[in-house]
Amino acid sequence: MNQKQEDNKKGDKPKIGFSRYFLFLVSLIVFIAVFMYGPKTEEISWMNFEKNMLIEHDVSRIIIVNKETAEIYIKEEKLNTAKYKALTEGVFANKFGPHYSIQIGSVESFENKLEKAQQNFKEEEKIGVTYSSRTSWVNIISWVLPLFLLIFFWYILLRRMGRSTNVGGVGSAFNFGKSTAKLMDKDTKSKVTFKNVAGLKEAKIEIMEIVDFLKNPQVYTKLGAKIPKGVMLVGPPGTGKTLMAKAVAGEAQVPFFSLSGSEFVEMFVGVGASRVRDLFKQAKEKAPSIIFIDEIDAIGRSRGRVNALQTNDERESTLNQLLTELDGFGTNTGVIVLAATNRADILDKALLRPGRFDRHIYLELPNKQEREEIFNVHLKPIVKADDVDVKVLAALSPGFSGADIANICNEAALIAARKKKEKVAQEDFMQARDRVVGGLERKSKILSSKEKEIIAYHEAGHAVASWYLKHVDSLMKVSIIPRGKSLGAAWYLPEEHQIITKSQFIDRICASLGGRAAEEIIFSEISSGALDDLEKITKQAYNMVTFYGLDEEIGPMSYYDSTGQSETLFGKPYSETMAQLIDREVQDLIMTSYERTKKLLIKYKSQLEELAQLLLKKEVVYEGDLEKILGKRSLDIFSDKNQS
Ligand code: ADP
Question: Which GO terms describe its cellular component (predicted)?
Fold first, then answer.
């Protein structure tokens, strides 16, 4: 076992110095207790002192401390008398004195009083006064103790923080600058291999090359080629970037350092840069090796935006250090850096230039074939019923990422287990899919019958509008069972498009307005139920006008900023006149679509009512029933030509 792993072990199961702290705390408490309850000098009044001690010739000495307190010492032989018994008995016996103390007003008045009290004494019996100045313990402790406690807690806090952030390190306040990367190597068997990664054929081929670079570098260097240093995996969340990196580690059988971009950044300045240095140092020592930085956008965001609110020197210095390290090591050191992000557009250009992360591997959302393969990977450990049809599952999950599919498979198994089934059936997968898309069914949500009616008409409105619009995806089912946040839903079977045409945009907006339009037509009253629809279409309409250049009046212009480096974060990149024009065009677009939808629903009002009634009765209406009520879907029933 190597040093790092030992460190890991320590990091996992830190030896907390609990007993040490405990001992320390106990001694502190004992100290305070002794201090407070230990041999004590009793404070007495002058009268008591004069009558019971001075006159009786019991006093041996008087010391005036700091001109404030007179300390009284009792003669040793008198201590044994009954009067002073309390002083010499018990745990806190006070044999040596001072035995009593008196707070004095002023030294002079005390001396005068003493003089007066002793005037009848013989000369040799008179007690004199000596003076002493001392620093009081109480004073010292009263300012040392809080300071001490403060330092003590600060230390504990730092240790804790050090431990919680230092996964790989020993975990102490002084290890901040150490890299927090997790290390996997041959001993820590990474079980993921390329077999676990389904689909992503092109990406796999490219990344296999990296494995080959590490295993047989001489094949490439012999011909004078330089081995790439950095590879950037780019793609939407859940498409398997991390999985791919893990598979590389599993296949290459070389040490693999993995950490997330955000782990570099700590609240202390300079820590990130120092961690980067440490990470590369460790990787070089173990070369050939792979460093994997997940979510690199946390540090790799473009620098120097003119935006005072967002400047982050710590992040910038971390990024600079990363760039320096990438430049710093020679191409043949045998270290390859993999990084993953879903926002390649906002990354600093310096990070992507040749010699750094110059290889980009794009992972996209899987197509139908790939989804089928991913389903197959995740269905393997599941006990399936015979009716499970992977092809159907793949077809019914367009736009789903690998992570979504993994989630569906797991949900389905959980649903089947809840129903105490022996095997997971197709129906469970369908339920899991609906749940992943729309959230949990909430049958217990209480709705009044009027509300139910409004929801039924609203959903029927969506269904009827989309049924007769040419460019809307085909409808699978309509439901008015509350699920997640929504009270009802129309479920579509989206086709996979790479581009969307203007007519498709408009038809989709109309379908989304179907709910609101139905409410207005049937009840002559509109409700708040269309919030989600309205939010969606407003955004869509603004995108059409300002990004995609789909508006005739404004023309083929786009204010989209793919660099993410817009310097006008607080202002708009267009004039006030243009802003007004945009607003007007968006409003026009939406109002025209709304009128069009209303016209369509009025035309098919009887179907709308029939469907709404069926929904109220059955709660869920499937394609078959939809077809019975609305007729076979003939796609040009209400195409653009028939609008007027
Ligand atoms: P990200 O791209 O966000 O890093 P991950 O790699 O973490 O996504 O993927 C999350 C999970 O999704 C994985 O653990 C895996 O179970 C599943 N997954 C994603 N893509 C695939 C794929 N191509 N093949 C098999 N499983 C996948």
Answer: plasma membrane
